Each structure stands twice: as C-alpha cells, then as structure tokens.
Amino acid sequence: MLFDRVKSLDAILATAEKKSLTRTLGAFQLTMLGIGAVIGTGIFVLTAEAAQKAGPGMMISFIIAGFVCAFAALCYAEMASMVPVSGSAYTYSYAVMGELIAWMVGWALILEYAVAAGAVSVGWSGYVVGLIENAFSIDIPATWVLGPFDGGMINLPAMFIAGLVTMLLVIGTRESATVNAFLVVIKVAALTLFVVLAVPVMNMENFEPFAPLGFGGIGAAAASIFFAYVGFDAVSTAAEETKNPQRNMPIGLIGSLAICTIFYLLVAAGVIGSVGAQPVGIDAATQHALEPGSRELAAACAAMGDQAVVCSKEALAWTMREIGWPQVGNLIGLAAGLALPSVILMMMFGQTRIFFVMSRDGLLPKAFSKIHPKFNTPHVITIITGIAVALFAAFFPVGQLANISNSGTLFAFAAVSIAVMVIRKTDPSRHRPFKTPLIYITAPIAILGCLYLFFNLDQKSINLFLIWAAIGLVVYFAYSRSRSHVGQGHIEVHEDDADAPPPPVPPAPSFR
Q1: How many angstroms separate the CA atoms of 456 and 459, rounded?
Q2: What is the CATH number of domain 25-277+286-483?
Q3: Per the record, which residues fall in region Disordered (predicted)?
C-alpha cells in the first residue's frame, strides 16, 4: 500500500506537550509579526516582473495573491496549532496522509527554500550593484553582475552573498531578535518613504491602458507576486503562544495580510503613477509581452537605454531616482542591501532543517544530518545547499527563480489544505487550539486558489516542477522507501530536536 505509512500524531505530539509555551500573544502582536514576516523581498525585487506581465493591472494581481494566501493561511493555522513541531508541512502531511505524500511535500519544500534563497540573492545583487554604480558614478560591466538570460554571463555578487551566508550557517553565527526587528524596521521605513514620495506625484494617465495583456497577464503576475506574501507561516506557527487563538489567529492572519496588501497596492500605485509600468515589447498579433528575465527583453531594454521600470533590477530605487530623489533611491538600495541577507539566511536555514528532519526519518542519507563537531551545525547539507543556491543565483533571473520557488510553495500549501479536511474526518475529537472557520468552504477555496496560481506560472516553471516531482518519486522508490524508519517499524519521537543543531537565528519570520 502506498499510503499506509503514517507517523503517529500522538508520538509526534508527545514531546511538544512537554515543552508547552506560555500564551502571551494577542491579536495586535500577531498582526505585527505577520507584517514583519510578509513585507520584504518580493515587493523590492518583483515589482518590475509584475509590471512586465500585467502593466498597471498588477494592482489586481496583488489582491488575488493576497486572497489566496489568506485562505491557505487559515488552513495552515489549524495544522500548526495541532502539530507545533519542526518540519512544517512535511510533518503535517506525514501525520495525516502518510509517507509518500509527506515525501513529495518535503521534496517540494526543498525546491521552495533553495530556489527562493537564490532569488533573494539575485535581488540583493541588483540593489547593491545599482547602489554602487549610482553612489560612486561608475559603470559595472553587465557580464559579471547578470546571468546569461539577463544579458550577462555570471552574477558574481549573487554568488558572493550566497557563499557568505553559507559560511555563516556552517559556523552557526546567531543573530539577535533585536537585529531581526531592526531589519524589519529598515524595510518598512524604506517602503513607507517610497510611498510618501511617489504617491503625491502620480499621473493618472500612467494607469492607461490598465490591463494591456488582459486578465491572463494579471493572473500570471499574481502567480509571480505570490512570492511577496509567503512568510505568514510565522503567524500560523505561533498558535501555541497565542491567547484565545480561535479569535486572535484569524485577526492576526487576515489583518496582517490585509495591511500588507494595502501597503503593496500603495507601492505599486507609486511606481505606476510616477514613472509608468507598461510592458516592453508587446506583440500586437499575439498580445504577449517579452518574457521577464529573457535575452529578448534585455536586448529591448538596452535598445531603449533601460528607460522603463520593467528593465530595472532595483525597481523602487530606480523609480526614486527618476522622480528626482536620487539619494532616497540610494537609501532604498542600502536598505535592501542590509536587510536581504537575513532573508537568504532564514531560507537556507529552513532548507537545511527540512533536509535534517527528512534525514532523521531515514528518507535521506544519514550524512545529511551529520553535525559538525566544533560548530554543532549540519555542515554537510548546509554546504551542499549553499553550492546549489550560489549556482541558481549565478545563472538564473530573479523572476524565474521566484516562479520555480512558488511552484513548490503552492504544492505544499495545497497539501496542507487537504490535510486539514482529512484529519477533520479521521480524528474529529483531537484538540485543536485553532479551528479553521467553515473548513469545507475555506480549504477548497485555498486548494483551488493554489491550483489557479500554479497554472498561471510560466510553462518553464511548471515543467521544472513536474520534472523535480518525477525525480522525487524515483528517489523515493529507489532509495527512501526501503530505508524509512517508519517502514522499518522504528517509530521515533525526535521532534523535540534534542539532536538538532541550534538555529542561527531565533524563531522569527522568514521576511520574504
């Protein structure tokens, strides 16, 4: 039987019950946590990508992506409150739907975290290179700061930051909660300053035509911009520390997503209204624009002197310079340069933790959970992950990486939404600190929303996800299934992380 290997939820929860946390978080704290987690990389680096796909219609794209995220968040919150342990969606799936589904979810999360870290590395590179060029009036050759699809050869700054973060993870350097909070303040302050300066100089003529590529373009932009919302799981996983979670969790989740959506709409409106956001290179016959991150778009942008926001690798900083605030543009570039490395660190740490948990379940080689004798970190898998992230960042454009990451994320979210409905049927009496409201309406909407965004991704991303999934199935049946601890009858309770490496940062939002 393919679906007969289920890890006992009671065994998983046994340790969690021993380390119950004090319920101190109210609705306001949860909302602030969510805002800090969600606002970040996506809005800094994917605004130009969304503009090339949807034009001014990207404002609708933000609403669609936020709507889907809200319903997925409500489903995620119930599972997080029931199973407050390591492993996230992988552990939830193992407890509810069995090993094969858990393996596929874990395999998808590997795709999500590593590729997302690559995307953020490329985004960091764009802002830092732009800052250096404008602050010191120099021109850095595109050959060394852009990948081959973007008109360069290799993105060395993106490789550098990925390598630096890998080194920090191996050494086990800890950041303080104060530093993380400071970085959140920097990002939110930078975006607030952008809104304050850009919105007053809006020209409503720049909003026409509103949807130059129709609703298909809006859907495609929503699938990409979904990357800007992921991070709400920081709220979902705080259920164990929440006062009156049945009331406060929905307020925190929906409240933070609503505020972030409004913030994103203001930023998008500022970009569109001040400098315009029409796609470059629309084919009149097919009504398709040039693909973001393609050689064709890079050539078209070069021909027009890069005088369009869709051509910029640092859209918000570029916009500020265009409307007469060059120093503010540099400040925004500096804010991104300071804040985004912590994002890469959190994503790579999440990647290594998923690998670590899967390795301890016997599904991946033991070497992946090997701990460095001096630094007490999983150095083997951290180095492997770092090499992969550096290669992704060196050769692929940010939008393509974000889309590939989204494919894994959407699969995992859909699986969690299914798991919530399944466990309502199979274990209705289980204590749930938070219950998803109207579960048989909420969960199907979340699943359909994830499917809608998935099939609005570009075909390359969908194909790569399917290839990755096929490779995962081969690995599972050729290696993992025969070595699984559950399959061998070794039911262990190790979610207490007694042998896990200490995290390099405190439990904090992933800041995408």
Answers
A1: 8
A2: 1.20.1740.10
A3: 490-512
Burial class (CB in 10 A: 0-12, 13-18, 19+), 485: middle
Single-letter code of the amino acid located at 281? G
Dihedral pair phi/psi, residue 8, rounded to 5°: -55, 125
* Half-sphere exposure of residue 490: CA atoms within 13 angstroms, side-chain side: 10
Sort residue 231 into left (φ over 0), alpha (ψ -120 to 50) or beta.
left
Q: Give the closest residue to 435 by CA, choosing from 69, 80, 9, 16.
A: 80
- Cβ atoms of residues 257 and 44 within 8 Å: no
Q: What angle do CA 480, 486, 487 make, to 5 degrees?
A: 60
Give the tens place of pLDDT for each residue, 234-268: 666 566 567 887 788 788 888 888 888 999 999 99
Q: Is the peptide bond before 209 cis (omega within 30 degrees of 0)?
A: yes
Written as six digits, the tokens of 402 are: 């974000």
Backbone angles phi, psi at 145, to 5 degrees: -125, 5
The residue type at 424: R
Residue ranges covered by each domain of the chain? 25-277+286-483
Residue 158: name the closest of 178, 188, 184, 128 by CA: 128
pLDDT in tens, 323-376: 999 999 999 999 999 988 888 887 888 788 788 888 888 888 888 878 888 888
- The radius of gyration of the chain's CA atoms, rounded to the nearest angstrom, is 22
